[in-house]
Specification:
- This protein is mostly helical.
- It folds into two domains: about 180 residues, MFS general substrate transporter like domains (Growth Hormone, Chain: A, Up-down Bundle), CATH 1.20.1250.20; about 200 residues, Up-down Bundle (Growth Hormone, Chain: A).
- The protein is about 80% helix and about 0% strand.
- Helix 10 runs parallel beside helix 14 and helix 13 packs antiparallel against helix 14.
Amino acid sequence: MPATSTPTTAIPGPGTPGTFPLRPLLALFTAAFGAVLTELLPAGLLPAMSAGLTVPQARIGYLVTGYAVASGLAAIPVTAALRGVRRRRVLIGLLLAFAVANTVTALSTTYPLTFAARLLAGAAGGTLWAMLAGYAARIASPEHRGRAIAVVLAGITVALALGIPAGTALAGAAGWRAVFGALAALALALVGWALADLPDLPGEPAAGRLPLRRIAAVPGIRRTLAVTLLLLLGHQAMYTYLAPYAAGAGLGGPGVLLLTFGVATVAGVWCGGALADRHLGAVLPGALALIAGALLVLGPAAGSPVLVAAAVACWGTAFGAAPTLLQTVLVDLAGPRRADPATALQATVYNLGIAGGSLTGGVVLARAGAGALPWVAAPLVGAALAVVLLGRRRAYPPRRTQRPRARTVERAAG
């Protein structure tokens, strides 16, 4: 990590060109990494946690469901309640909530107490996702905004590609309780890192605070939320059921496809960060078109393992870039100081998309089989692309003309 001076001098202010604030962004990256591990690790530890808590494995799966529900329900109200609080203070509070929840999970011997801890972690997670992009945007100069958001959101990809397998391996060697103990220790270490390197940005002053309904009414924000929902519906309908699709396509298990997708998302995160700052207006529809096209290929390609793997690689690359692109759009539209409530709305929509996509895919799988999944998923992503293209001139202009939109929001507050 490059050495920096104190945050107040090392971090460029909004609108001021400056060096890239890598170390503070890596702290936010690590927070995202820890949140994803906290959310998803129970799915990889089903047998061990089931035995340890003496409940069926299905009930351990509900620990992931409970986290997601709490995350979706808490994102908007908790973020709204904390809008005026200094950002570092909010982040430290959320990290402490993760530390408490994971400590309780590590020590609990009863399912109800573990479930309650998961609800606390989920509420903290929903609020965390609502503030990460805005925090990154405010500590980076405008010409580095998309890249900064990409660095932070790369924590998701690294957690999925490396963190989950490493956590599962640690659980096999030291027990599942040790994994959650390690996550609690990580959260506490991040508190110290935040105090050392993250600038203590102010919250929104009460006099200039727009109600959520007015932020949602900013041109382009509702379109972006609709794009997020449609994209997640299509993606999740297919991704959740890759295992039966792989079996039906003659590929055996889903391991190769999941690995291909995971590696491709790493490339997608890099591409999204590299291109978002200069070519956002072109890259976002391009990514959606690539996802829709790849899903369409998966339909007739079921008998060709090479073609399926290539389509999954294209899908993963484009989907890896999508979160950075969509959150950069939201930050541009709402303005960095009002990014938290805008991304809180997106966090809720994101969770609705995950739940709705999984449900849709399950219905399709039960009624028409795995081979029908691509034909349902691709049109949903195609609809997201259509929303972008129809609103491109007003909601998604070229990047160089997007920031005046954010200034319009600032003037509306006055």
